[in-house]
Amino acid sequence: MTHDDPKIGPHPWARGNGLARINWGDLTAFRAVAEELNFTRAAASLHIRQPALSVRIRRLEEALGVRLLERSTRVTTLTAAGLVLAEWIDRTARSWEEAQQEMTGSTVEPSEPASPPRPLTARLDVSAPEPRRMLRPLVQGVGRVRWTCGTAPSPEVLADRLRAGQAQLGLWYRMPFTDSLDLRGLETALIAESPLAVELPAGHRLAAGSSVELADLADEMWAGGATEHERALLERTCAELGGFRPQVVPTSDDAGEIQRMVAAGRAVAFAGPLTPSGQAVVRRPIRGALACAAYLSWPATTPAELAQRVLVTMRRAAETVAEQPARHRLAIVQRLPYRGRSTGQRYAATS
Fold this sequence. Notes:
It comes from Micromonospora maritima. Belongs to the LysR transcriptional regulatory family. This is LysR family transcriptional regulator. InterPro entries: LysR_HTH_N, LysR_subst-bd, WH-like_DNA-bd_sf, WH_DNA-bd_sf. Keywords: DNA-binding, Transcription, Transcription regulation. The structure is a single chain. α7 links the parallel β8 and β9. A five-stranded mixed beta sheet has the order 4-3-5-12-6, sandwiched between helices. Strands 10-7-11 form a three-stranded antiparallel beta sheet. The chain has 351 residues and is of the alpha/beta class. The protein is elongated, with a radius of gyration of 25 Å. α1 crosses α2, α1 packs across α4 and α2 packs across α3. The protein is built from ten helices and twelve strands. It has two domains: 92 residues, Winged helix-like DNA-binding domain superfamily/Winged helix DNA-binding domain (Arc Repressor Mutant, subunit A, Orthogonal Bundle), CATH 1.10.10.10; 230 residues, D-Maltodextrin-Binding Protein, domain 2.
């Protein structure tokens, strides 16, 4: 039997402690969506119709005053607030069940001590200007997970690895002029979208401006990335937007190495939205450039909760990068004036 909207009152512990406006049935509905990340499957598990489920979620969001879900035609994802609420509901449900067992005396003593849960092993592969050594600290704080991070030579290879089960999660970029990517069989969610930008030494002649013309960097040396795909993308972007072929300096995927090269005036580089710029480096958007976007993809075999935790963590990192204070950058530019190319080091060094 299907019920549109069963009249379920507030949970007993909600009365009198500020949660009386929250309907336990709405929390249960949200928990089902958080587990399934699909409204159709969640409604079926609750034996209600999908419109009724949508009403419950909307009512809960209005009661809490926050957005809990991001919903598109392809995928449903949790917001940061949604992830916090899902974890709280899980903890509360477990506590209530334990309390019921104690009250009814149904607690069963284990025959032997329970062994601690083994950490999940997961692999995150990257096909992006984002060095994987910068990503490792982002994901290491996600639950009890033993992480392996790898590099894919292109988004196409990354998608094939995910479909083949060789990686659980994949980070990739949609950059200007990149071809469409076959994402069949994968869940995909947007991490961040931002204007295409370059990183310059703080003393660079163009660092004081709010944006730069890519053509003005035609004579610079460019940090080319660790893969042929990254270098090809760099060359295509410079050709399309700046009308020049860049002089490329091969680099590893070590973010520290690239930052030191830029800070010392040995190269400039495109900036990734998840990697913060160093103190002697400024980030400037390119005038007239299309936005670049970072995405997280995963196959159906990847636990939904794991994907959500990584997604929320990366979105927070992107927000932190976007909020880097401009005043600090201006102070560096004023302290490190451009010295021209006649010196052995193009730009002023950090004092």
